[in-house]
Design goal:
Elements lengths: L4 H4 L5 H13 L3 H17 L4 H23 L11 H21 L7 H11 L5 H15 L1 H4 L2 H22 L5 E8 L3 H10 L5 E6 L6 E10 L3 H8 L6 E7 L16
Antiparallel strand pairs: 1-3, 1-4, 2-3
Helix pairs in contact: 2-3, 2-7, 3-4, 5-9
Length: about 260
């Protein structure tokens, strides 16, 4: 925020953007503004959500605010380059996304709109809170036009938010991607050795019935590594009566073998 966003003259999304624009208009250090916004939110959150969440978020808010105040006092490094302002967008998006993801992983947040989102989610667990957060963030970005006075600042803010989300989601993923394959066949035993011994993965067999023919068959469900998909298709060619469809899964947790040398459990 101090080294990349502030010198580049654009507002990030969410409450950080409100704090940055307020600093631009008033000259008050971003750290003081962040405290003024987050302390009331944390007080309210104390009565609605986990105390651990509030404590961790409060500690983060206090430390980050103090750091931004001290950085200004010691004239800490700021990246200033009129010809490469987009480097600030890339760097800040990655760093701020990583910051938020790490806070979520330990059970807290980076404050601001995340606190509001957590409270709303507790009261309305099935509500699509992500859409509301995105709408709020885009409204803040739109208002930044009246502070910075140019379209480029808005474009930079949107790009930074997209990079922020990519970086955050990448860190929040528990494992690498994998593929879920469904194999419909009359002879599941023919696939047994190939899946268990060659691909080194387990599988689940489900009874199924064709809607048109009413023929009874079996569906083999297995999770394999992304790079093993071609191997599975090659194995299936030995069984022309089989039908395979597959889709990417975002994460795998539990007893899952990544390498052929992994022990069979």
């Amino acid at each position: 925020m101090y080294s990349f966003v502030n010198p580049a003259n654009f507002a990030p999304s969410g409450v950080d953007g409100i704090a940055m624009m307020t600093q631009k208009l008033t000259g008050i250090n971003l750290g003081y503004i962040s405290l003024a916004i987050n302390i009331p939110l944390l007080i309210v959150a104390w009565f609605f959500i986990s105390k651990k969440y509030v404590i961790y978020t409060g500690l983060f808010t206090a430390i980050s605010s103090v750091m931004m105040i001290l950085m200004e006092k010691v004239d800490f490094y700021r990246y200033i380059s009129p010809n490469n302002a987009w480097i600030s967008v890339l760097a800040s998006g990655i760093i701020l996304g990583a910051r938020t993801a790490l806070m979520i992983k330990i059970g807290g947040s980076s404050g601001g709109v995340d606190i509001v989102a957590c409270m709303v989610q507790r009261k309305r667990p099935y509500m699509n809170i992500e859409s509301l957060i995105s709408a709020f963030c885009y409204i803040i970005i739109g208002l930044s036009f009246f502070v910075y006075g140019n379209i480029e600042s808005i474009i930079m803010s949107v790009a930074q938010m997209l990079i922020f989300n990519v970086a955050m989601n990448y860190i929040l993923k528990t494992t690498r991607n994998a593929v879920e394959a469904h194999i419909i066949t009359n002879n599941p035993e023919a696939f047994k050795e190939d899946i268990l011994q060659n691909l080194k993965h387990g599988a689940t067999i489900i009874d199924c019935e064709g809607m048109f023919t009413a023929e009874r068959k079996k569906t083999i469900v297995t999770i394999i590594n992304m790079r093993q998909m071609n191997d599975l298709i090659k194995l299936a060619r030995k069984h022309p009566d089989s039908f395979i469809y597959f889709s990417e899964v975002n994460g795998v947790w539990g007893n899952f073998r990544w390498n052929k040398t992994d022990d069979v459990k």
